[in-house]
Specification:
By secondary structure, the protein is mainly β. It contains no helices and 11 strands. The strands form 2 sheets. Strands 2, 4, 5, 6, 9, 10 and 11 form a 7-stranded mixed β-sheet that branches. A 4-stranded antiparallel β-sheet has the order 1-3-8-7, with no helix packed on it. 31% of the residues are buried.
């Protein structure tokens, strides 16, 4: 099973990006998925998670109201819509299949002030 993130890049403060996490090798429609991030010199931190059914979401306080996690099980893909971005959102973003210790390679997000 492989997770591949995409959609990262450079954006100005107040802007938006949508990250994608495509799974291959196995369906993840029955797996709780999450997004994490790691800024330079800091530990990896939780951002958001989404239940396998899509009914339950949970967000870090720092992104609540600005980020939205979603999934398209037909495409075996999980998304992270990031709006009203701030320079402190700058980090490498990783998706993960929670409970399986399965991680993608990460995608860089940089927010300029």
């Amino acid at each position: 099973v492989q997770l591949v993130e995409s959609g990262g890049g450079l954006v100005q403060a107040g802007g938006s990006l949508r990250l994608s996490c495509a799974a291959s090798g196995r369906t993840v429609s029955d797996v709780t998925m999450g997004w994490f991030r790691q800024a330079p010199g800091k530990e990896r931190e939780f951002v958001a998670r989404l239940s396998w059914s899509g009914s339950y979401t949970y967000y870090a306080d720092s992104v609540k109201g600005r980020f939205t996690i979603s999934r398209d099980n037909a495409k075996n893909t999980v998304y992270l819509q990031m709006n009203n971005m701030k320079p402190e959102d700058t980090a490498v973003y990783y998706c993960a299949a929670l409970g399986y210790d399965l991680w993608g390679q990460g995608t860089q997000v940089t927010v300029s002030s």
